[in-house]
Design goal:
Elements: E1 19-27, H1 33-43, E2 47-59, E3 62-68, H2 71-82, E4 89-92, H3 98-110, E5 115-118, H4 134-143, E6 149-150, H5 154-161, H6 169-180, E7 187-191, E8 199-205, E9 210-216, H7 226-240, H8 244-262, H9 281-286, E10 301-304, H10 307-312, H11 317-327, E11 331-334, H12 341-358, E12 362-365, H13 368-374, E13 378-381, H14 388-395, E14 400-405, H15 408-416, E15 421-424, H16 440-450, E16 455-458, H17 466-470, E17 477-482, H18 484-487, H19 492-508
Parallel strand pairs: 1-2, 1-4, 4-5, 5-6, 10-11, 10-17, 11-12, 12-13, 13-14, 14-15, 15-16, 16-17
Antiparallel strand pairs: 2-3, 7-8, 8-9
Helix pairs in contact: 1-7, 2-3, 3-4, 5-6, 7-8, 11-12, 11-19, 12-13, 15-16
Length: 515
Amino acid sequence: MQEKGGSTLSDDSKVKIPHVLTVAGSDSGGGAGIQADLKACAARRVYCSTVITAITAQNTAGVQGVSIVPEDFVAEQLKSVLSDMQVDVVKTGMLPSVDIVKILCKTLREFPVPALVVDPVMVSTSGDVLAGPSILSVFREEFLPMADIITPNLKEASALLDSKQLETVDDMRTAARLLHNMGPKNVLVKGGDLPGSSDAVDILYNGHNFYELHSPRIKTRNTHGTGCSLASCIAAELAKGYPMLSAVKVAKRFIESALDYSKDIVIGNGPQGPFDHLLRLKSHSQDCRRQQAFNPSDLFLHAVTDSGMNKKWGRSIVDAVKAAIEGGATILQLREKDAETKDFLESAIACLNICRSHGVPLLINDRIDVALACDADGVHVGQSDIPARVARTLLGPEKIIGVSCKTPEQAQQAWLDGADYIGCGGVFPTNTKENNITIGLDGLKTVCMASKLPVVAIGGIGLSNARTVMEIGVPNLKGVAVVSALFDRECVLSETRKLCAMLSESNHGGTLTNL
């Protein structure tokens, strides 16, 4: 294996990535099958390769058609992946013909994998038949004995056992024991459709013990693909090295969380919609008012809140933010050092709604967890906080990341780490940070000239000196960040208006360039 430049990577430097191979059908609607498996594995941070066994025409109303992939091409796909990649777990879904099942059994004997998760897809949650009865015998005789776990729903368990419908938890336990007798190491009978149950009850049996797993029943139409996704999540956790019971519990919690998040989204006009594995679709919808990329001109008047100052003047953080925005602040940064996390999160959500209604970005100071929880527009971090490159990994490519810098070296590192801008200072002495070393106007200019990123000046800046700061003559100095000059005043609105007017007047006079 070669690095750029031709040097060889040692075995110690190679990163082993958990890998699931899913063998299943394609769902044109994107809610189940291969598509659900890919999304579930991505959500659980596991690599997923695919072998497609069938192409279906389906949507939220049901399955309109199925085209089975030729057996020899299924075999070719299997060999391509298994002969080259180190697969930890094979997860199966729709296996639409006896020959495909036999090919899979043969290939897995030729290329053994550590674990096999079998979701015996025969009847979808919506009631569509996806595999005929001729497959049942080869499942029972050849395939199930190879499985580390099988995950039938109530209808599939009845079909495999050629028994009556399962109607109680005791029926599920009996079915799990009988299915275990067919050879799989573990059986998970899914009771999501169990009549009369207020919970979603699943029964896991490993040949020795029964585990009755409960979760709240989420009232939603968006349940398409839950079976595929649960099995894929189990496979993902097994690929990471988790024991079976832990893998099943994590997978069940994941599905519960995804269903709860997705319960009110609307995709399609049929009776059964898909759910959001990545828990992001609603964020996109709510964020539609701030879809443009970061604009350096947003740094023009960067208002940074302070919990102590707000408390001193008897106002809430929400009132302070609203006043600053109405006064002309172009970006808001919540810096609440004294607030409890729960209170901070509630305030951040309220402030975010205000900011988005005005098209103003909202950043969280230091707290990546709060930024993630409220889906803020980004974060601002200091030199002693979580590195910008880690923040970028956690928050994603679209979020704004600012970094406090005092030196050209720190500015260079911020650029390498993927920051969007730097906050440079303190320019002047300030009482908002203890032992804060000031760099002065000369230090600010030095950092600006070295920086490849837009710069906002911070530290002791107010009406008396903001114009002087902005007249140092460097094009990438885009604005000023202020704390006390706005929030340690009786009226945030009037002070913001004054500062905004002064900066705008300077800009129109030609001294603020490239805004």
